[in-house]
């Protein structure tokens, strides 16, 4: 029902929302919010492309690095296992703060203005590493020992045994990464000045912020600009534009996730 109300409100006349509130079905149909958003469709499409590229690259890279680190931490024979586990866990308790973070990314790594500034900071998360490590620990050690007896190295064991048996955790962590990259706008606020490199969320944030400021500060013919500036319906339209692709991804990953759990339970 909330999604229906969001879609309905995005195609409802602004004055109707102001006077009657949000409705389950639009009373006075209007495309004004979408027309406002698509005044410059090339900017919106470019932002979609940036967000998709960042999300795909970050998710694939994040899954690879997270899984390799988690597999290493799950091996009992790794002599630095406990110190490295503590090091990863420690990052969940403290952080350096915003100013050191900005200096590190922008000055030390010189990533300001680069799309890498949108990808690298979110790629590895301690919580994701610990979740995946816990799953790897539960894989029977006999499988790993049998592979070693057959002459398999660690990379062969990881990609041929651990990865196929870990479909549920890969789907889960992948979903976390996708949502993290798709919804992120804060990295762009800090590090991106070029409008051509703005991700979708930050571009829509700017559009909505500008519309609200104009609506609150301007007057047209003695009436507030809210009578023609679709601020409320614009909020709902931005939600529709950003949520729709993620809904499709979530449903696809959900089916894959359930299938992975079923296969794992049968093999177990």
What's the pLDDT, averaged over the residues? 83
Describe the global form: elongated
Structural Rg: 24 Å
Count the beta strands: 2
Instruction: Give the terminus-to-terminus CA distance.
Output: 39 Å
Class from helix and strand fractions: mainly alpha
Q: Quickly name the level 1 CATH class.
A: Mainly Alpha
**Element string (H = helix, E = strand):** HHHHHHHHHHHHHEEH
Q: What's the CATH architecture?
A: Orthogonal Bundle
For the biggest sheet, the summary is:
2 strands, antiparallel
Low-pLDDT residue intervals, each spanning 5 or more residues: 259-268
- Name of the CATH superfamily: MetI-like
Output the number of helix runs: 14
Helicity level: over 70%
Spatial order of strands in the largest sheet: 1-2
**CATH topology group:** MetI-like fold
GO biological process, one term: transmembrane transport
Family: Belongs to the binding-protein-dependent transport system permease family.
GO cellular component, one term: plasma membrane
Subcellular location: Cell membrane
